[in-house]
Amino acid sequence: MRPLAMLIGIVMGSTLSIFVALTLTGIVLLFLPEHADRIAEERGPLLQAIGLAFVLTSLAATSFIGEIRARGWRPAAHVALVAGLVLAGWIYWPR
């Protein structure tokens, strides 16, 4: 396996684990109706994080498949993945 494919695989696995963890956190919060008023303001940021993690996971998977199968569109997929990672960094970088 090529080094770039291994790196993209690591990114894909990391983004997938973040997506799953955030989704499971959201599911757990659904089962805590007695604390709904305390966690109401956290729903928006949590849903945003879940959406971003889903997009990053999708971009990483597309980039990984393109790299493994040596498709002609793989450079565009790599650029999209890097742009998504930069966007995530920009959104979550401490201000």
Q: What does this molecule look like?
A:
- It is a single chain.
- The radius of gyration is 16 Å and the shape is elongated.
- The chain is an all-alpha fold and 95 residues long.
- It starts with a helix and ends with a helix.
- The chain has one domain (3-92).
- The longest helix has 33 residues, at 36-68.
- It has three helices and no strands.
Attribute tags:
95 residues; mainly alpha; 3 helices; 84% helix
Gist?
This protein has three helices and no strands. The mean pLDDT is 94. The longest helix has 33 residues.
Write the SSE topology:
Layout: H1 3-30, H2 36-68, H3 74-92
Helix pairs in contact: 1-2, 2-3
Estimate nothing, just give the exact number of structural domains: 1
The string of secondary-structure elements, in order, is HHH
Distance between the termini: 39 Å
Strand content: under 5%
| Largest sheet: number of strands, sense, barrel closure | none
- Residues in helices, as a percent range: over 70%
Rg over alpha carbons: 16 Å
Poorly predicted tracts of residues = none
Backbone structural class: mainly alpha
Q: In DSSP terms, counting alpha (H) and pi (I) runs of 4 or more, how many helices? A: 3
Work out the number of β strands.
0
Query: What gross morphology would you assign?
Result: elongated
Mean pLDDT: 94
